[in-house]
Design a protein that fits this description.
By secondary structure, the protein is an alpha/beta fold. It has 14 helices and 21 strands. Helix 8 runs parallel beside helix 9, helix 9 packs parallel to helix 11 and helix 12 packs parallel to helix 14. Bound molecules: iron/sulfur cluster.
Length: about 475
């Protein structure tokens, strides 16, 4: 390959975006140049997402064009990210290599370079997308096995990153002026970290889970899978810390920065985590707590490990300690067997939890998942769309009413982009609660904290005037 240009096509969640920053770092470290369009590239890296069928369709849609260039020796295609086995089998004839992201350090050898000692995946230093806001993965994989989800099969079981490594990365970022750290993982709140080595959830919880289930039985709550109260985080290994302890250590790092995290599983949403959030101004008062359904039967079929009662009790606890928190959720409508009644319960939970943001999706079968094998996708597309629209209407009204609290107030905003409009600049950013806000100013404030007085509120965004800046 003469022209050493590469293009990374990233599909899916923030975790994939973060992985792409690491792939980018390895390739640029080899002297390759990143290009914005795949037509210019001699190497296309596909960072794939197995969660949505639409992502797969998008990749398959590119193969014809790529194959023409591959046949002429102009292009190589490398596949990585979340890929189910059966998708991999179908894709392999159209790509040159498949690289599990955990084996990222072998990428140079794959491209014909001598082996480099890059360390394990977490040790590869990312090329951050910008200097003021960074994703920091703290764990990867998932042990929850929700029946609709492909992640445990594509990313494997949970592995927690050593906490000394996480703290070092964040200290460096903050020293370099980073203003916002987003901790990433499929289940950040089941993090169990050792100081200097990766820890698998299985390893730590083998003993811990037995103790936890015994405690529940004694308390009359049943075993795992029927959780009705917050699960204590078992720490069976000497010197390990859990997620609230990690958050506290990060909040103790000196500097002016915000901390966010995603995603949290309700099963692991402990009282300790709520207390750490309440006690630290650096931790943004924003939480995504995916409920997925408001019906116990559906939750059981989804293998979500909690009941509606347990979930709403967690919400009550969170709101008691963090009354102004911005609470969002994920919901799948039209999961297998979801009746009108079951959906009605989801709408009830939606109102009871009073979400101000939600990521709503219509269920679609992903081959290879447990749900695809066990249940029929028996809710029509029309009904799914109607249910999604119904939740969207509730959301609109709840989001509007939540945002009204900001009217007339001066709020702190981290500006993430700015666009020149004649003499002025239209700056856009988010506040602590992650609400988008725009304001006009005499210059570009990208990457800075500023104080903005809110002059207009809507369901999805705010407007204001610059009041003070740092
Ligand atoms: S918790 Fe469930 S939905 Fe989330 S990554 Fe794990 S299996 Fe998938």
């Amino acid at each position: 390959m003469e022209t050493k240009k590469y293009h990374i096509l990233t599909l899916g969640c923030q975790m994939n975006k973060s992985d792409s920053e690491r792939v980018d770092s390895v390739l640029s470290g080899l002297g390759w140049t990143s290009v914005d369009t795949e037509d210019e590239a001699a190497l296309v890296v596909v960072n794939s997402c197995a969660v949505r069928q639409s992502a797969m369709d998008r990749i398959f849609g590119r193969f014809k064009i790529w194959n023409k260039r591959r046949a002429k020796g102009e292009l190589k295609v490398l596949l990585t990210g979340c890929v189910l086995d059966q998708d991999k089998k179908r894709m392999m004839p159209h790509v040159d290599w498949f690289l599990p992201i955990k084996d990222l350090s072998t990428l140079p050898a794959l491209l014909g370079y001598p082996e480099l000692d890059l360390g394990e995946y977490f040790e590869v230093k990312p090329n951050y997308n910008n200097t003021f806001s960074a994703f920091v993965p703290i764990m990867t994989g998932c042990d929850k096995f929700c029946t609709f989800c492909a992640v445990p099969y594509t990313r494997g079981r949970e592995i927690s990153r050593p906490y000394t490594q996480i703290l070092k990365e964040i200290e460096q970022l903050v020293r370099n002026g980073c203003r916002e750290i987003t901790l990433l993982g499929q289940n950040v709140n089941s993090y169990v970290g050792a100081p200097d080595r990766t820890v698998s959830d299985r390893e730590v919880r083998g003993v811990g889970k037995i103790i936890m289930n015994l405690r529940r039985r004694v308390a009359g709550h049943g075993g795992e899978g029927q959780a009705h109260r917050p699960a204590p985080t078992p720490v069976a290994l000497q010197g390990t810390i859990d997620f609230p302890q990690l958050l506290q250590k990060i909040a103790d790092i000196p500097g002016d920065f915000w901390i966010r995290f995603l995603t949290s599983h309700p099963y692991d949403m402990s009282d300790e985590l709520v207390e750490v959030m309440a006690g630290n101004p650096k931790i943004c008062k924003q939480l995504n707590l995916p409920v997925q359904s408001g019906d116990d039967e559906i939750l059981k079929k989804m293998n979500r490990h909690y009941t509606v009662e347990y979930y709403l009790e967690r919400v009550r606890k969170i709101r008691e300690r963090l009354p102004n928190i911005a609470l969002s959720t994920d919901i799948i409508v039209g999961f297998c067997g979801e009746s009108d009644r079951a959906f009605g319960k989801t709408a009830e939970v939606f109102r009871a939890a009073n979400y101000d943001m939600a990521f709503l999706s219509e269920y679609s079968t992903r081959p290879g998942t447990a749900a695809a094998k066990l249940f029929a996708d028996d809710v029509s597309g029309e009904v799914k769309t109607k249910r999604k629209e119904e939740l969207n209407e509730i959301l609109k009204s709840q989001a509007f009413s939540y945002n009204q609290r900001f009217m007339g107030r001066t709020i702190r905003v981290l500006v993430d982009k700015s666009e020149q409009k004649g003499e002025l600049f239209l700056n856009s950013g988010r506040n602590e609660e992650a609400k988008p806000i725009q304001f006009l100013a005499g210059r570009d404030y990208t990457g800075q904290f500023v104080d903005v007085e809110v002059t207009k509120t809507g369901a999805w965004n705010l407007e204001g005037i610059l009041s003070k800046f740092d």
